[in-house]
Amino acid sequence: MKGASEIGDLVENVIICWRNKQQEMKNDGSASEPDAVIKVEAQRNADGWIGKVPMKFDKYSMRFSQWGN
């Protein structure tokens, strides 16, 4: 997020999508690290779950799915 910290204080949900650009550059098909991570940093007025979900990218279907167990 860019800008004043008040921007983050006003929102109900903060969700961050992070791509593993080093993993993309390798392009060797190794599964030692996730291709992306979706992080939930804040959930107000809900159940309050905060955490992260590692994702893998399938080139053939062009979709992300949960990585690992």
Subunit organisation of the chains: single chain
Largest sheet: 4 strands, antiparallel
- Chain-averaged pLDDT: 81
Instruction: Give the SSE order as H and E letters.
Output: HEHEEE
Topology record:
Blueprint: H1 5-10, E1 13-19, H2 21-26, E2 36-43, E3 51-58, E4 63-66
Antiparallel strand pairs: 1-2, 2-3, 3-4
Which structural traits does this protein have?
69 residues; alpha+beta; four-stranded antiparallel beta sheet; 17% helix; elongated
Report on this structure.
By secondary structure, this protein is of the alpha+beta class. The chain has one domain (5-66). Helices cover 17% and strands 39% of the residues. The chain has two helices and four strands. A hairpin with a 4-residue loop joins strand 3 (51-58) and strand 4 (63-66). It is elongated. The termini are far apart.
